[in-house]
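Marked as duplicate of an earlier ticket. Keeping the data here for the record.
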Amino acid sequence: MKRLFCLAAIAAALMGQSLTAQAAGVEFGVGQTSDSTMTYRLGMQFDWDKSWLQSDVGRLTGYWSGAYTYWEGDKTSSNNSLSFSPVFVYEFAGQTVKPYIEAGIGVALFSHTELEDNKLGSAFQFEDRFGFGLRFAGGHEVGIRATHYSNAGLSSDNDGVESYALHYTMPL
């Protein structure tokens, strides 16, 4: 398992090096699951530097997200996960503040297959997210995000887990 985490960390670092020409940010997040497990997330975002459906209302854009999450167990031992996801963002027009909504589906790798009373079934999970927030002039961002982890039935155990978090992203 440690080998998989090392490989994922190396891949994330290489991905970051290949995307340095694009706008990047560091994400800090704190959240909680329905089982009272606290989550602490540290991630990187790399903007796609592309937009679609531009109008006076807003535009569709996105970013690559790579993150480490520490899951602080309330009843049992803690867990760790690495995740990678493409995220689509609809950014509404604005001068200094731009509201946005985001959605993405990616993958995550957990260090253990149990989290509190949830049997994840496998270390490999899909990460589905939906969120909204505000982007400020200068690239700072605050938001709220709901994230669901599940192995999509690839294992007979598939309790899954949801996390609800506040996050702040600062530009690099």
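See parent ticket for discussion. Residues 2-171 form a domain with the Porin fold (CATH 2.40.160.20).
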